[in-house]
Amino acid sequence: MVSQTQKTQTFLAQAPIPFYSGGNWVNARDGSIMEVEDPAEKQLLATMAKASREDAEQAILSAASAAPAWAARPAAERATLLRKLADLCERDAEELSQLEALDVGKPVENARGFDVPFGIECIRYFADLCESQAFEQQLNIDGMNARSVRVPHGVVGFIFPWNFPLTLCMWGIAPALAAGNTVVVKPSEVTPLSTLYLAKLMDEAGFPAGVASFLPGDGPEVGEFMTQHPKIKMMSFTGSSRVGRLIGQACGAQLKPVKLELGGKGAAVICDDADLDATAAGLAGAITLNTGQVCCTATRWIVHESVADSFIEKVKAELKKVAIGAGMVEGNQMGPVVSQRQLSTILDYIARGQAEGAELLVGGKAPDDAALQNGYYIEPSLLKGAEDNICFKEEIFGPVAYITTYSDDEDALRQVNSLDYGLANSVWTRDPARADRIARLMVSGNSWINAHNVFAYGLPYGACNASGHGGGVNSPETLLDYTRNLSIAEP
Ligand code: NAD
């Protein structure tokens, strides 16, 4: 068991942990608090002040008054502060990793190896980019002195989900701040801890008051209020397609720009010429990463009928090797799911999938390990059946894959594209031409070849259809998404 550092303990011991609004650490005006649970033990981890609409109003007003001065700062100064923040995140990487492991349930080694360093890299990426980005361009139009200027929107509201709270927050706010916006952030009420620790580091880095506020609170309360607020000039939402539709409708009614990064039901096409050992290892890794609570992961495995039996045997062997247990125990590869609610949702999907005719190949229950009875654990699970099954069609958000078979590539593509989701898919084959063709014809924001869950800065990570729109994250376009055009012209 990893020992909590002194700083982690001190942070968690605040009762409640205050939130950060307009440069101040405050408790809720109405005194509300929320409880944060450790999913590995089903025990209270921390209490946190819970923001209301009135608290959100204060944060939004201070973000609006901080916006002009922040936008007027030279990009190099914004970059310097972002780099300072990145350095502080690096200094406290262990605390951030521990909070992520405790709150989400993920293995602390994953948080140390991916969530935290990759988030820090994001901050540095956008710090560098905003310095090199030409936010202003002289236009060559006859008889006119004309310039095109990219200006920030003003206040951007962010709402985040619970599965990668820290990384997603960094992916969102780093480009927005770099582009000169101020931000109001609502983390998920399920996993707010690392986001509030990030707020602490922003405070220490010296960001001016009001440039970033962090408000843990309920979605239909604080999130909806932010979405409707006229001083929030742009919304950026990461979460389910269901809530994304609500946010999109509300922003549409106000003609407010919105970025939506939503749910997924990714497919993996396993061709008859695939390296089956590598494919089985890769997809077992994909479905157990973050206990399957990954928007873009491969949850529909569409396998060529000639290799299906062999592939299934190999992947079962891979899944057996996965060490399940508390995120704070080093060596564990898959933790609990985040909550009782999520566990019930997953088990309910598996039961409904079976009732609709699918065969449960492995999993579908808690591991047979007395040491794990205190947490929200489930074994990695495989179902096999027809396409007309709820587990093929709907996002489950757990370590569950649904296997179908196909006879030719057109049939595989038809299956991949039969749903409205469009986040990420992969194709597994030794034939580069076949890989390229299938990758281009799968309708989504991301097509990966012989791998799943591939991220890099400079590689846009976006979506289409029910998985969202707005240009995605992690690329130069993302920085510009957080600006609008201003044309200045003198004939
Ligand atoms: P969710 O949609 O239930 O909640 C997301 C956030 O929205 C939370 O902060 C919640 O409080 C808030 N919210 C809820 N109702 C609201 C309302 N009426 N108005 C405003 N805000 C509201 O999603 P979740 O269960 O937290 O996360 C899982 C979902 O997120 C999955 O569907 C997953 O695919 C998706 N996700 C997508 C991406 C991506 O990049 N595309 C990344 C991570 C997760």
Helices and strands in order:
Blueprint: H1 6-13, E1 19-21, E2 24-26, E3 33-38, E4 43-49, H2 53-72, H3 75-91, H4 93-104, H5 108-132, E5 136-139, E6 145-152, E7 155-159, H6 165-178, E8 182-186, H7 193-205, E9 212-214, H8 219-228, E10 232-238, H9 241-254, E11 258-261, E12 266-270, H10 276-288, E13 298-304, H11 308-320, H12 340-355, E14 359-362, E15 381-384, H13 390-393, E16 400-406, H14 409-416, E17 424-428, H15 432-441, E18 446-449, E19 468-469, H16 476-481, E20 483-490
Parallel strand pairs: 7-8, 7-10, 8-9, 10-11, 12-13, 12-17, 13-16, 15-16, 17-18
Antiparallel strand pairs: 1-2, 3-4, 5-6, 6-20, 11-19, 14-15
Helix pairs in contact: 2-8, 3-5, 3-7, 4-5, 4-7, 5-6, 10-11
Bound molecules: nicotinamide-adenine-dinucleotide.
Q: What does this protein structure show overall?
A:
This is Aldehyde dehydrogenase. Belongs to the aldehyde dehydrogenase family. Keywords: Oxidoreductase. By secondary structure, the protein is α/β, with parallel strands linked by helices. The protein has 2 domains: 279 residues, Aldehyde Dehydrogenase, Chain A, domain 1; 188 residues, Aldehyde Dehydrogenase, Chain A, domain 2. It contains 16 helices and 20 strands. Helix 2 crosses helix 8, helix 3 runs antiparallel to helix 5 and helix 10 packs across helix 11. The chain is globular. Bound molecules: nicotinamide-adenine-dinucleotide (NAD).
Evaluate the radius of gyration.
23 Å
> How many discrete domains?
2
Question: Could you please say which CATH topology of the largest domain applies here?
Answer: Aldehyde Dehydrogenase, Chain A, domain 1
Total strands: the figure is 20
Instruction: Please report the distance between the alpha carbons of the first and last residues.
Output: 70 Å
Mean pLDDT score, rounded? 97
GO molecular function: oxidoreductase activity, acting on the aldehyde or oxo group of donors, NAD or NADP as acceptor
Keywords: Oxidoreductase
Pfam families: Aldedh
Family: Belongs to the aldehyde dehydrogenase family.
